[in-house]
Amino acid sequence: MPLSSCILKRRKKTKKTSSLNEMVLEKQPPVHRRHHFCDRSALLLKQDKRVGGIKAALFVYATEGLESTAFTANAVSMVTYFIGYMNFSLTKSANTLTNFMGITFTLALLGGVLADTCLTRFTNCVLFGFLELLGYVLLTVQAHFDQLRPTPCMDNSKQCEPASTGEAAILYIGLCLVALGTGGIKAALPLLGADQFDSKDPKEAIQLSSFFHWFMFSMTVGSLAGVTFVVWVSSNKGWDWAFGACTVLALLEILFLCIGKPFYRDNSPKGSPVIRILQVLVAAIRNRHLTIPRKEDELHEIYDKGTVVESNEIIQRTSQFRFLDRAAVHDEPSWGASASSTPGPWKLCTVTQVEETKILLRMLPIVLSTIFLSTCLAQLQTFSVQQSMTLNTHIFGFKIPAPSLPVIPLIFNLIFFAIYDRIFVPLARRTTGIPTGIRHLQRVGVGLVLSTISMAISGVIETRRKSVAYKHDMVDSNEPLPMSVFWLEFQYVVFGLADIFTLVGLLHFYHAESSAGMKGTSTALLWFSLAIGSFMSSVVVEVVNKASGGWLASNNLNRDKLNYFYWLLSALSTLNFLIFLMCASWYKYKKVEERKQEENSLHGYAD
User: How many CB atoms sit inside 10 A of residue 484's CB?
Assistant: First the structure.
């Protein structure tokens, strides 16, 4: 039966009250139905603008501030809990804290992979938030009940009762839960915040650049609260109160996340990035006998919606790692022309999938060349606290506890964040035309230079501190030297600025350069580099001690050669910066081509 007669029959059966719009819609040919679909797509796009943006990001800022308060407070002072409550030795306490920090940042990789593979950013944050909460609850219970801890050691000159296997197990389980939860949140939370801004929208692209600044601002505010409020609670009220405060903070994190749920743009996971990388490597090896075509159009790519390309980006081919291009080479004679015999993803990959793998490989030298910054940070935190214990800690009539030493540089950092985002970036944007003001790797380079300067300043100040000790014949004295602890703030302030440039630059770099399906994994590389830097710090000290004959072997800082060690770190930082320059100049920024089919359909154009 002809199609036109079928349509006429259906018209006769319609009720007289049928609207004119229904009859017109029935007459529409397929090309006009596409216009109807486009109107609906435009409506969905308009509704999407009602969520996300700065309003949604505010909940992310609040969550990060709460998480950072608890984590930073424990990072700077939990060694006193290990010594005073668990009867650990000084060496074991320091190693336990270093391992806790390293494991936390390492587990961020797990959170990043899960955020890409099977969990949305919001679900990821809530799930790991509950694990962090459970860990703090366990630590609070152990700190409160004496039966779960060894008897406190009142006389350090005698052998203290060590923690039993069960007591140590409770501690380590609690620490592992906190490390797992914190690592997962650190990986997924900045992604959830960045998802609230569309980098393809000119206005939101500028807001996205500011997001990373204010995200780190929130982290700094949380760190400031941690080294003041929580440290004061642990010192004056006890560690059960301090861990209890961290438990409340972890609970508030989850509440703030859930309250903001209606405002989030929560991107769905794109599948396992690990599997996609393995597919490229396997396909490239299997196709190693094929010749790479000269024309880029002859490589395999899929532009249709609903295919293996999960996002609306097509990454253009680059000339680096050409061997991997074989994963996208057609081998038509071997599999024929029928669709049923088309090779699977382990034999043939798209150019975009190949470029995903290339991006990750190009990032690895950047990751490796920024690890040493984390090592310097760990050394500065460790030795600056020891230096402060030999100095006059009274400033303006107030006695500053050693763990609270970073308060002043943190305040400087808060001021600098605002200056950088509101003054420097707009001025640089007018000159360069880049939404971030300067390139991400340029910003990281500035941070590495500042870290080199900070290590040199540390060496100068340590030389002056030792000269004061010798001048007043106080080399072997336990009394504070007639030198203010404020002198240490200079190295802290400069290194704080280095932290701002480097960490924010790397966070934005990993997020902007990674593909849509690999942002969690790539962003987690920042925390992974911090983990490696933490683990390397103790190795560096051991190596320097053996090679130098004991620069840091004495328990008396006045007789050690800490100033030589700082100058060595400054020289190594300079070498590290030169290596970074080579890696940054070699790196090729990705180029993305929007899917033309979807772009046209949104504007109502026919194919």
Answer: 14
- 193-210 per-position pLDDT tens digit: 988 888 777 788 888 888
- Report pLDDT digits (tens) over 298-308: 787 766 544 44
Compute φ and ψ for 194, nearest 5 degrees.
-65, -30
Sequence-separated (6 or more) residues with CB below 8 Å from residue 204:
53, 197, 198
In 3D space, the residue among 17, 75, 584, 114 whose CA is nearest the CA of residue 374 turns out to be: 75
Percent helix, percent strand, percent coil in the chain, to nearest 5: 70, 0, 25
- List, for residues 276-331, the tens digit of each pLDDT value: 899 999 999 998 888 888 777 778 776 654 444 445 578 888 888 888 988 888 77
Answer for the pair 526, 371: CB distance below 8 angstroms, yes or no: no
Name which of 122, 96, 271, 264 is nearest 185 in CA terms: 122
Long-range contacts for 565-570 (Cβ within 8 Å, ≥24 apart)?
A: 565/379, 565/383, 566/455, 566/456, 566/458, 566/459, 566/462, 567/455, 567/456, 567/459, 568/544, 569/376, 569/379, 569/455, 569/458, 570/452, 570/453, 570/455, 570/456, 570/458, 570/459
Q: Which tops the pLDDT comparison, 247 or 228?
A: 247
Sequence length of the chain is 607
Residue range 354-405, pLDDT digits in tens: 988 999 899 999 989 888 888 888 777 778 777 887 888 877 777 776 667 7
Q: What is the spatial distance between Cα 108 and Cα 525, in angstroms, rounded to a whole number?
A: 8
As a whole-number percent, the residues of the chain with pLDDT over 70 amount to 84
Pairing of strands 592-594, 394-395: unpaired
Q: How many Cβ atoms sit within 10 Å of the Cβ of residue 175?
A: 21
Q: How many CB atoms lie within 10 A of CB 202?
A: 9
Sign of the Cα torsion 490, 381, 584, 520 reads negative
Tokens of 534: 């933490």
Tens of pLDDT, residue by residue over 68-83, are 999 988 887 888 888 8
The answer to whether residues 523 and 511 touch, using CB atoms and an 8 Å cutoff, is yes
Tell me how far apart the alpha carbons of residues 534 and 105 are, in angstroms, rounded to a whole number: 9
From first CA to last CA, the distance across the chain in angstroms is 30
| Pair of tokens at residue 223 | 């760190």
| Of 607, 603, 418, the residue nearest 37 (C-alpha) | 603
The answer to pTM > 0.85 is no
Closest to 421 in 3D by CA, of 211, 218, 224: 211
HSE at residue 408, side-chain half, CA atoms within 13 A, is: 17
Task: Give the pLDDT of residue 582.
Answer: 93
For the chain, counts of helices (H) and of strands (E): 21, 4
Strand, helix or coil at 20? helix
**pLDDT value at 347 more than 60:** yes
If you search the block for the tokens 């006429």, which residue do you land on?
8
Which string of b and e fits 399-413 if b means at least 16 CB within 10 Å? ebbbbbbbbbbbebb
